[in-house]
Amino acid sequence: MRLYIAAVLLWAVIASEGKAVPSLPHFGSSYHVKGVISLPYAEIKEPFQAWFDLAAKSSRIDYYHGQVSTYQLGAEPQWGVAYKISPETTETEQNVMKCFQTNGTADEAVTTQASLPDVQGFQFLRMEYFGGSLCEVWQNVTTVGHKKNTYTLWVTHSERGANSKGDPATPLHYEMMGYNTLLGSHYDKYLVDYKEFSPHVDPKAFSLPEGMSCGGFPGPGVEHHMLANPMKDLIHTSASGQSEHMFNHFKDKFQRQYSDEREHEKRQHAFIHNLRYVHSTNRAGLPFSLALNSLSDRTMSELATMRGRKRGKTPNRGLPFPSKLYQGVNLPESLDWRLYGAVTPVKDQAICGSCWSFATTGTVEGALFLKQRSARTD
Ligand SMILES: *[C@@H]1O[C@H](CO)[C@@H](O)[C@H](O)[C@H]1NC(C)=O
Ligand SMILES: *[C@@H]1O[C@H](CO)[C@@H](O)[C@H](O)[C@H]1NC(C)=O
């Protein structure tokens, strides 16, 4: 009898150990997932929705609830084709859906873009509750040069498949923490919260909207790959990423020479966070767009210093705007003055702290233009 109990206990120990080290999770070869990427250092919270089908060599990722759709169609001849569809506003048109195409090349073929991490090399850490679900926690730590990156993933399994090897896992949360041992500080961090996950993909998700004709990207080529497939650089940070290419291009263009490796690393980090901020803001479909400029390698606190203003001690005798006078006026929600040709290009006020005079000349120029034009057409 005692022997029998011991045998049962031994079996129980083996069974619980078998359960304590689950097999490496996988997400299947096709899935549809929704989530939010947060990049706290760039002040970004970007919702996305993704479709992935390995057999069809196709993926699609939409950002900001479909403001921007990107397609990676690896089966299209000859080396795959990437598309980006988004509304564009220019000097001549407002919110017109545009499709931009990037053809893969022998060197850089267009392939499917996963929106879930590749878990090869991850180690099982522990079981813990996350967002009310009991999760497996998996982790991988990599060291490349001065960069130590810790990737942590929280997954669950459906009730039915709790212990069976073959069933795809459901991703819940993913965190990347990048620590720079040279600078002694965290240089990067991103979090992804997955909201919906399903192994079913509607093949129609990979068809471009009907009647869409696609042209190449305007402007110089360095940025195109990032615009066509933002996810690639957003959460798959590798030493040879597109953002590194962009930084090299920036250094050439603005003739940057940094004093040492430390400053170089610092500038590169500032640049990449600014780059992500610019691209993410542009994907959100706001009434304005951002671009990189000579200040893109500065940190937020350096930029704040440049905007510094000395307050005068005496009152400036400015009067409040007489809004009462205009109470009955019927105003449109918004007005894009560029469409009226009344806006001159953005000026660079450099170190001149005269925002008030730049604002004034801008307004006077626009008003004068409209006045002259109506005088001509009357
Ligand atoms: C992390 O993953 C890579 C491969 O993806 C592997 O070479 C490495 O050993 C892993 N690191 C740890 C600490 O397990
Ligand atoms: C891509 O390839 C197609 C077919 O070969 C061609 O018609 C199109 O002009 C190319 N587009 C770009 C942007 O290179």
TrEMBL record:
Pfam families: Inhibitor_I29 (PF08246), Peptidase_C1 (PF00112). One of its GO terms (biological process) is proteolysis. Residues 1-18 form the signal peptide. Residues 247-303 form the Cathepsin propeptide inhibitor domain. Keywords: Disulfide bond, Hydrolase, Protease, Signal, Thiol protease, Zymogen. The keyword Zinc-finger does not apply. GO terms for molecular function: cysteine-type peptidase activity. Belongs to the peptidase C1 family. This is Counting factor associated protein D isoform X1. It comes from Notothenia coriiceps (black rockcod). The gene is LOC104963909.
